[in-house]
Write a structure and sequence with these properties.
Layout: E1 9-13, H1 16-19, H2 32-38, H3 55-69, E2 73-77, H4 80-83, H5 93-108, E3 112-118, H6 124-128, H7 135-152, E4 158-163, H8 165-175, H9 188-209, E5 215-220, E6 223-226, H10 231-254, H11 259-265, H12 268-272, H13 278-281, E7 287-291, E8 295-299, E9 322-324, H14 339-352, E10 358-362, H15 380-398, E11 403-409, E12 428-430, E13 437-439, H16 441-454
Parallel strand pairs: 1-2, 1-11, 2-3, 3-4, 4-5, 5-7, 6-8, 7-10, 10-11
Antiparallel strand pairs: 8-9, 12-13
Helix pairs in contact: 3-5, 7-9, 8-9, 14-15, 15-16
The chain binds ligand GBH.
């Protein structure tokens, strides 16, 4: 059996708005997610991130739990509205101090801090000025990245500019199920472009600031399979892969947008006018992070089964694609479980950028787990999902893919965006009444797996 390299990084991941709470403390100002969560009907049960896991006050306990689990690294995100509360302008030192405390506590426990600069909490004033539809947001992001890099460069092991720009652009500006909740169809691709430009400008700004820490970006990649070899189904798969993966991978790694996707969405001209940005977007990076949850089998709809192109869709230009239920087991999110899809997406990126180090920066699953009478959480479903995907990572390494690390999503149960607290992804249970943490069976499994692999 292949063993993981000795320097393979084992980690856990979280994101600021999902865990911190303390949304009005020490100078933090509202983000688009504060606004969205307060808008009736947007988040299940009216949940907000106001308190969440109270990590802002309990981070030391949470880092200690990671140390007990024996992980090497912690991927957390910095909240832009803590550091530059209005999006541009005045810097809030208290915000930077908080993340320094988190990072230093990690280092004291031998846990390497990996920072994501943007995990969806855009300062509200920037949204009011056009959000990611506006080019100036990209420039503001680069300035915030420079400030944060300058302040924390000595304690951060790796920097990730954006988390999942596909979600920010398509779920935020097309499907409208994430903040800012807009349904603008193909204009969401303009948001995608400004996110990618913001990434490139941020990489340039951080490079100019100096330092050795590797710089990268995290994408949520969709493993895509055609339901059959028919031309129509292969075409559906091309469209789904185009919007879900290549729209982001190609400009970042090849310096060019996929022409078929622009043609499908009628955006060729808009993008042509901005072709000068591609050199910035393709600024060389040191690694790419991949968030992987599921594989998607797609087909062309039969007559009469076209989705209505006027309805909001996360995949504008792919209205003529249906997702097929393969009968595979699903998690509580309804996402099919396909561990081999993880190997597929890693191979897809590797083919595009041979030699570029790869990290799985998120992977995990939601299940309706419960605390048993003995106080234990026997989350066998989550444990099995985790084990199967860790074995997929082993397979990727065995095939020679340059996979350097794995971060389990998530350390803690947390605010699961539009689903509020109703979905639990943690390997550590959070009781939202008492804020008590309980390591689940899956967490113990991860601890033992990592210990065994280290030898
Ligand atoms: C991640 O996004 C986020 O980074 C993280 O904050 C979040 O808590 C975590 O996942 C769990 O959701 O086509 O209906 O099968 C995940 C992005 C995008 C993954 C949609 C699943 C397919 C849904 N997700 N995707 S579906």
């Amino acid at each position: 059996m292949t063993t993981f390299p000795a320097d393979f990084v084992w980690g856990t991941a979280t994101a600021s708005y999902q865990i911190e709470g303390a949304v009005a403390e020490d100078g933090r100002r509202p983000s688009t997610w504060d606004t969205f969560a307060r808008t009736p009907g947007k988040v299940w049960n009216g949940d907000t991130g106001d308190v969440a896991c109270d990590h802002y006050h309990r981070f030391a306990e949470d880092v200690a739990i990671m140390a007990d689990l024996g992980v090497d690294a912690y991927r957390f995100s910095v909240a832009w509205p803590r550091v530059v509360p209005e999006g541009t302008g005045a810097v809030n030192q208290a915000g930077l101090d908080f993340y320094r405390r988190v990072a230093e506590t990690c280092l004291e426990h031998g846990v390497q801090p990996y920072v994501t600069l943007y995990h969806w909490d855009l300062p509200q004033p920037l949204e009011d000025a056009g959000g990611w539809l506006s080019r100036s947001t990209a420039e503001a992001f680069a300035e915030y990245a420079r400030i944060t890099h300058e302040a924390l460069g000595d304690v951060i092991g790796s920097w990730i500019t954006l988390n999942e720009p596909w979600c920010s652009a398509l779920l935020g500006y097309a499907a409208g199920v994430h903040a800012p909740g807009q349904q603008l169809g193909t204009r969401s691709l303009e948001a995608a472009h400004h996110l990618l430009l913001g990434h490139g400008l941020a990489v340039q700004a951080m490079r100019a600031d100096g330092g050795e820490a590797p710089l990268g970006i995290t994408l949520n990649l969709h493993a895509v399979r055609a339901a059959s070899d028919s031309e129509a189904d292969l075409e559906a798969a091309r469209r789904y892969d185009g919007l879900g993966n290549r729209l982001f991978l190609d400009p970042l790694l090849r310096g060019a947008y996929p022409e078929d996707v622009l043609a499908d969405t009628g955006t060729t001209e808009w993008f042509a006018e901005r072709s000068d940005d591609l050199a910035t977007i393709a600024e060389p990076i040191d690694f790419i992070g991949i968030n992987y949850y599921s594989a998607h089998t797609v087909a062309a709809p039969e007559d009469g089964r076209f989705s209505d192109p006027s309805l909001p869709t996360p995949t504008p230009g792919s209205e003529r694609v249906v997702t097929v239920d393969t009968g595979a087991e699903k998690t509580q999110m309804g996402w099919e479980i396909h561990p081999d899809g993880l190997v597929d997406v890693l191979a897809q990126v590797h083919a595009l950028a041979p030699g570029l180090p790869l990290y799985v920066t998120e992977n995990g699953s939601a299940w309706p787990d419960e605390v048993g009478p003995d106080g234990r959480v026997e989350d066998e479903d989550r444990r099995r999902y985790l084990e199967a995907h860790l074995e997929a990572c082993r397979e990727a390494v065995a095939r020679g893919l340059p996979l350097k690390g794995y971060f389990c999503w998530s350390l803690l149960d947390n605010f699961e965006w539009a689903f509020g607290y109703d979905r639990r992804f943690g390997i550590v249970r959070v009781d939202y009444e008492t804020q008590q943490r309980t390591v689940k069976r899956s967490g113990e499994f991860y601890r033992d797996f990592v210990a065994r692999e280290r030898g």
